[in-house]
Specification:
By secondary structure, this protein is mainly α. It is built from twelve helices and no strands.
Length: 276
């Protein structure tokens, strides 16, 4: 009897383990999972699923095209249903509708429905950034938009390879500098204004007065010292600022940062807290 009892307990434990394992496994995408995925144009409809049932939610009964377009746009974005965008009569509203739903759904294929060329590029950029998919950036025709797309994804993912896809020399080196938190990449930039901007961005990310010293334009250098002084809670750095107004602002910012640090130390007496 004891052996039978033990066997039953083992069987029950095995069944419970199996059920727990399968409950924790993510279910495969389907047309009944309540999620917009697998190329669907609406939740569980369109694409590989059955056609979406289009309900105009009363929009069709509105008096004029502008009101109807706004109504369809609102309903389409609230329900993440691109089929409603097709009912919009005014093209600018229709383009905006597909752009908005594409971003919400993370579906770059919807960007092809945007007729305005610049709007299509914006749509692809927004979807790429939302999904952090650099491959989507490659479909953008406008070079500055494409660079902006790569730059944002590279910054968010800390991905040097994506930085190197940027066409603009200044933007590419700034991207590399920020991902590496190193100003040596700024040195490679030929345009002085872009180089100065790169130094200030790196100094804000990795506070170092030496980086600010590399900035050529005095107003930009002053702002750089101001930022670093506050982050390091270093009043002495404010004395390096040429503009008296900016210098005064620097002293105020450092004092505010000092008080915030003191307050934080009071709240966390056992923690070791130091400026950036």
């Amino acid at each position: 009897m004891k052996i039978q009892h033990a066997a039953i307990l083992i069987a029950i434990a095995a069944i419970a383990s199996y059920l727990a394992f399968n409950a924790s496994r993510p279910s495969a995408p389907s047309c009944k999972d309540g999620v917009l995925n697998q190329g669907e144009t609406g939740i569980d409809c369109g694409g590989p699923c059955g056609p979406c049932v289009v309900s105009d939610a009363g929009c069709g009964g509105l008096a004029n095209a502008s009101a109807r377009s706004k109504c369809y746009f609102t309903t389409a974005t609230n329900t993440v249903n691109s089929t409603l965008c097709d009912l919009i009569e005014l093209q600018p509203f229709k383009d905006d509708c597909f752009k908005a739903v594409a971003k919400l759904a993370g579906e770059s294929v919807l960007c092809a429905r945007v007729e305005d060329g610049l709007g299509k590029d914006e749509c692809l950029r927004d979807v790429a950034i939302e999904t952090l998919n650099k491959e989507t950036c490659s479909g953008i025709a406008d070079i500055p938009q494409k660079d902006s797309c790569y730059y944002r994804i590279a910054s968010d993912k800390k991905d040097l390879a994506t930085c190197r896809l940027i066409a603009s020399q200044a933007s590419m080196n700034t991207c590399l500098a920020l991902v590496n938190k190193s100003s040596i990449y700024c040195d490679e930039i030929t345009d002085q204004n872009s180089k100065d901007w790169c130094y200030t961005k790196v100094a804000a990310l990795n506070p170092d007065a030496k980086t600010c010293a590399s900035v050529r334009a005095t107003p930009t250098k002053d702002q750089c010292y101001k930022t670093v002084a506050a982050k390091k809670i270093n009043f002495d750095l404010c004395t390096l600022i040429q503009n008296k107004t900016t210098q005064s602002e620097c002293l105020t910012d450092v004092e505010i940062a000092r008080k915030q640090m003191e307050e934080l130390q009071k709240q966390l007496p056992n923690a070791t807290i130091s400026p950036t």
